[in-house]
Design a protein that fits this description.
This protein is an alpha+beta fold. It has eight helices and ten strands. Helices cover 67% and strands 12% of the residues. A three-stranded antiparallel β-sheet has the order 3-2-5, covered by helices on one side.
């Protein structure tokens, strides 16, 4: 039996009698029929030259340095303790195990990538190798603390990266020559292209600005409709809360009024009762005094008078008490009626407020649904017209019969009017004059029908002679 103590970076593993699997400890007793050993959890560096091949069957060497050590938790340490039960961490067995896992995962990953992808995506390639190797090391309780993949190296006899560097140098030199030639060419036409580009960009910016302004206007309108609906809902809620507060205040005021009136009635009646009692006591004292005074002279007469007085006082007190009870009952009945009336009024106001709020909510929902349906309809029709707003506008005017209504309105506007139309001709067929006198003849022929037309259409005086039916007036037709 021995007592063992581990160093700060060490753990003690104990197996044997009384232990089902293994026991980890920093210090403890090792009893007979038990065995123990220590292991260090400090990470170690492992250097590998991984041989891999790309998807184009191009081999390359991947120098890598991994810093690997066990995780400091019970489950991982138990797995790690079983791994090195017969080998230490720096032994050949563990090194070969790690090398096999790293080379296997690296080769599988490189076989699915081109050489160009491996070369350009070094960080991605490194992270993928790191993640896939870590998954395999989890089953041994190991963790990769750091992984450093160095520059890819050619395999002897396969100078891919060397040739790639030479290719890059030659391409850079050739590109420099091309750049010089293009710079001269661009210098000649750069000014013209810049002016054209400026005009095109200005037109593009103007178009985008108009589109953005339209979109912002539509969004602002939608937001305004939404805010209006929310404002109406909030106002309805506030009105309902105010109505509820007013009803509660009315109820409390009715209760306070009832209590005040009851207290006043009780006070008045108590005063009346006390007054009656004091009167009765006063009468009794007076009767006693009178009895004592007249005892020797007329005892019987005084006694009768006393009894009569007592009975009268009792009757008066009883009468006043009954009147007070009747008045109290009446006040209580009136207070109960006011309470019930206030409750009914409050209930009615609550129901009216609920109905109004519900109606406003449904109206807001209907407006929102109508706006959404109209927006969907407009978007669908604009898509059907391939964004042609003029075509969509003409379709809407025809579909909603706007043109028909405009025609009907114009027809109704002139309905009942009887315009007078006068037609005459001054052609050559109506005159035998020819040559230079023809214009004068036309003027003289135009004057009579013109005067007749003016008189017919503007003169309010009646005709001197009625025109028989079927006869065409010269003011109407002149030939």
């Amino acid at each position: 039996m021995s007592y063992l103590i581990a160093k700060p970076s060490e753990y003690i593993v104990i197996t044997g009698r009384g232990i089902d699997d293994v026991k980890l400890a920093k210090k403890g007793w090792v009893y007979p029929l038990q065995s123990s050993w220590k292991f260090d959890i400090s990470p170690m560096n492992y250097t590998f030259d991984v041989q891999a091949m790309s998807i184009e069957k191009l081999p390359f060497t991947l120098p890598a340095v991994f810093t690997i050590g066990p995780r400091d938790d019970e489950e991982s340490l138990t797995k790690y303790a079983k791994l090195i039960a017969t080998h230490d961490m720096s032994g050949r067995h563990v090194t070969e195990l790690l090398k096999g896992i790293i080379e296997g995962e690296t080769r599988v990953l490189a076989a699915g990538m081109t050489m160009e992808e491996v070369f350009k995506g070094a960080e991605y390639f490194k992270q993928e190798v790191f993640d896939k190797v870590q998954v395999e090391l989890d089953q041994f309780g190991l963790n990769i603390y750091n992984a450093n993949i160095k520059q890819l190296v050619d395999i002897p006899g396969q100078e891919y990266f060397s040739y790639l560097g030479q290719k890059t140098q030659h391409e850079a030199a050739n590109q420099a020559k091309v750049d010089v030639a293009e710079a001269k060419y661009k210098g000649d036409k750069g000014a013209k292209e810049r002016e054209g580009l400026t005009l095109r960009n200005a037109a593009k910016v103007n178009a985008e600005t108009k589109i953005f302004a339209k979109a912002q206007s539509a969004a602002a309108r939608q937001q305004e409709v939404k805010v209006d609906a929310e404002t109406i809902i909030f106002e309805n809620k506030r009105a309902a809360e105010v109505a509820e507060a007013n009803a509660d205040l009315a109820q409390r005021q009715a209760e306070w009024t009832k209590q005040a009136k009851l207290a006043q009635i009780e006070s008045e009646k108590s005063s009346a009762i006390r007054d009656a009692e004091m009167n009765m006591l006063l009468e009794q004292k007076k009767a006693l005094a009178e009895t004592e005074r007249l005892r020797g002279h007329d005892v019987a007469k005084a006694t009768v008078h006393y009894e009569v007085s007592v009975q009268g006082a009792n009757a008066e007190f009883y009468k006043q008490q009954k009147e007070a009870d009747a008045q109290l009952y009446k006040r209580q009945t009136q207070a109960e009626g006011l309470q019930k009336e206030a409750d009914a009024h409050l209930y009615r106001q609550n129901k009216e407020s609920d109905a109004l709020l519900y109606a406003k909510q449904k109206e807001a929902e209907g407006l929102q649904l109508m706006a959404e349906a109209q927006a969907d309809y407009v978007r669908t029709m604009m898509a059907a017209f391939n964004g042609n707003r003029h075509g969509f506008h003409d379709y809407m005017m025809v579909d909603r019969k706007v043109y028909q209504e405009m025609g009907a309105i114009n027809a109704d506007a002139i309905k009942g009017l009887r315009p007078k139309v006068s037609v005459w001709t001054t052609g050559s067929n109506g005159s035998n004059v020819e040559g230079s006198a023809q214009p004068l003849a036309d003027i003289y022929m135009m004057i009579p029908p013109l005067l007749d037309t003016i008189r017919e259409q503007t003169d309010p005086r009646p005709r001197s002679r009625p025109i028989p039916s079927g006869v065409v007036s010269s003011a109407e037709v002149w030939s």
